[in-house]
């Protein structure tokens, strides 16, 4: 297992999985640049920074910006470099959103918002961070994707398309950047209990029924997976999926019983 020189940048780090990833990487020994989008999240980032300083003794730098926009990604990376220097050891592309609707009912602006946040943001951040990693001949990039990028779900067409794209980015960039010391992997969560998924609490029982182990995921499970792939020297170009067996049960449930599964929120199912 390897610990990279430098610090970690985490996009969408103010809450949920992003905040858990920040905590875990701080526990692993990294200072953190925590990206957030809205002014209303600033207090959460400040509280997270205070918690990490007290518990782990590491810095957390707040970097506001909408990473679906290239110019904002530039600002995030520049804030990181100006504050902590040019040694970027780790990048975690975690920022993501979802719009639950059939493709035929989505507006162009909704389509672009989902695609830009879930796919283009990752491409932009990789583009901007890679020159720093190349200069030091080392670094680890982790893209947070989804089981939706492995199977596909109705009413999440654009979201799934973006996550499939992130998996493709992971595999192609691993081959491109590997000879220069950069490893690129993806973590594809199943249903994780976060502020976003709590909006669809009725789906929890359906997810438990779909999981062979009957569990709901916690953000910390994903943070642990990120920690592993960041430090696993022999792993690159891989997509690992902590999902409680969701992919297995989705396939068998659909094929064997003929039931229809509706995708209810970022990673949840409801049987009808």
Q: What tags apply to this protein structure?
A:
272 residues; alpha/beta; Rossmann fold; 8 helices; 9 strands; 15% strand; disordered C terminus
Describe this structure as you would to a colleague.
The protein has a single domain (7-203, 213-244), classed as NAD(P)-binding Rossmann-like Domain (Rossmann fold). It is globular. It contains eight helices and nine strands. The chain has 272 residues and is α/β, with parallel strands linked by helices. The termini are far apart. The longest helix has 29 residues, at 108-136. The strands form two sheets. It has a seven-stranded parallel sheet with strand order 3-2-1-4-5-6-7, with helices on both faces. The protein has a two-stranded antiparallel sheet with strand order 8-9.
